[in-house]
Specification:
This protein has about 400 residues and is of the alpha/beta class. It contains 14 helices and twelve strands. Strand 4, helix 7 and strand 5 form a beta-alpha-beta unit. The N and C termini lie far apart (about 65 Å). The mean pLDDT is about 95.
């Protein structure tokens, strides 16, 4: 047991996921950490209370349950510290508020998660931050966009809905030459398939709602920082009073144990479906980084260890007036696929993507973009359901 930490550092992914954030001897030998519900924490004396010189001081500052999850995420990310927040969107907004001030300039990738764009264009702008969107393919060329007051560069790879890849290392190196903080939304890959801090990112963001949970019943975000940026992130989180609940933390810990096994299944199934779609005449393009035909495939192959279960395809349509009718007919005919937002759960989902908010990377012209979350069902059943959708679209 003395060498457990060193052993786990060299162990395989499944082994690590079974044991990170897990110290049975601290809990009388019980395998899973207890769910500790807390607001008030008592102090043994006034001096300890005044100096806060004990591990736990108030429920918003952590409990043994939330700490167990943070420790597990730190092990996976290689981070100096992790905070828990109530949603994936909060995992973006909290570090933005931590590192940006009035008068600052922020560079945000144009393929960013839609609610992040809304936050930037409304609240962040209202607080006096200038927001500029950039092409996801820019790479080291981002240096030309950096101003004297640029403080933060936000990345997301692959990009939301259209899955553009980014050269994260090149962007990070350019940003750091000018003292910028680099943040990355890494929800698609999880730290199993990509570790942002190893590629120069300062703050790694995840919607734990997705694959860490895995069952479509938990909302949570995690934000992990390197040593240089951890104190400021932690201070801002405490100031904002935002925290994750112990019950949800317990469930995310539980989901982590099987995350790699589920990701492997998502990976195989999604690539099978994407390959099948690519061969169809009624599909204009398949937007999946794992396909050799995809524009960003070389970056994905170089930097990532795998692909998750979400990607998009462009339904081939003859005229723009048919975009929505064809897409609606396709989606309404599906029965195995649910029509719902989010992803990362065990069930397959489908949604028509709205790209009208893009500034630079515009929507494909060939037809509507339909995003698929490939769940854990049998691939032959998934394909049969999609075939029904294509038949309906053809008749619309």
């Amino acid at each position: 047991m003395r060498d457990r930490k060193e052993m786990l550092a060299a162990a395989g992914t499944d082994t690590r996921l079974c044991h990170v954030g897990n110290d049975p001897m601290s809990y009388h030998g019980f395998v899973n950490p207890p769910v500790v519900h807390a607001s008030t924490v008592l102090f043994p004396d006034v001096q300890t209370m005044e100096t806060r010189s004990q591990k736990y001081t108030y429920g918003t500052r952590g409990t043994p349950t939330t700490d167990a999850l943070c420790e597990a995420i730190d092990e996976l990310e290689g981070s100096a510290g992790t905070i828990l927040v109530p949603s994936g969107l909060a995992a973006i907004t909290v570090p933005f508020l931590a590192f940006l001030s009035p008068g600052d300039h922020a560079l945000i990738v144009d393929s960013v998660y839609g609610p992040c764009r809304h936050f930037c264009d409304t609240m962040l702008t209202r607080l006096g931050v200038t927001v500029e969107y950039y092409d996801p393919d820019i790479g080291s060329g981002i240096e030309a966009l950096i101003r004297p007051n640029t403080r933060l560069v936000h990345t997301e790879a692959p990009g939301s809905n259209t899955f553009e890849m980014q050269d994260i290392r090149a962007i990070s190196e350019a940003a750091h030459r000018h003292g910028c903080v680099v943040t990355m939304d890494n929800t698609w890959a999880t730290p199993i398939y990509f570790k942002p801090l190893d590629f120069g990112v300062d703050v790694s963001i995840h919607a734990a709602t997705k694959y860490p949970s895995g069952h479509s019943d938990i909302l949570m975000g995690t934000v992990s920082a390197n040593a240089a940026h951890w104190p400021q992130l932690k201070e801002a989180n405490g100031t904002l009073g935002i925290c994750g609940s112990p019950d949800d933390s317990y469930m995310i810990l539980r989901g982590l144990r099987t995350m790699n096994l589920r990701l492997e299944h998502h990976n195989r199934s999604a690539l099978s479906v994407a390959t099948w779609l690519e061969a169809r005449d009624d599909v204009a393009r398949v937007l999946h980084p794992g396909l050799p035909s995809f524009l960003g495939h070389d970056i994905w192959k170089r930097d990532f260890k795998g692909a998750s279960g979400i990607f998009s395809f462009v339904l081939k349509v003859d005229d723009r007036e048919s975009f929505k009718p064809k897409a609606r007919a396709f989606l309404n005919e599906l029965s195995l696929f649910g029509l719902g937002y989010s992803w990362g759960g065990y069930e397959s989902l489908a949604v028509m993507v709205d790209l009208s908010d893009r500034k630079i990377r515009k929507a494909p012209a060939e037809g509507p973009v339909i995003r698929l979350q490939i769940g854990l069902e049998n691939v032959e059943d998934i394909i049969a359901d999609l075939e029904r959708g294509f038949r309906a679209a053809a008749g619309a």
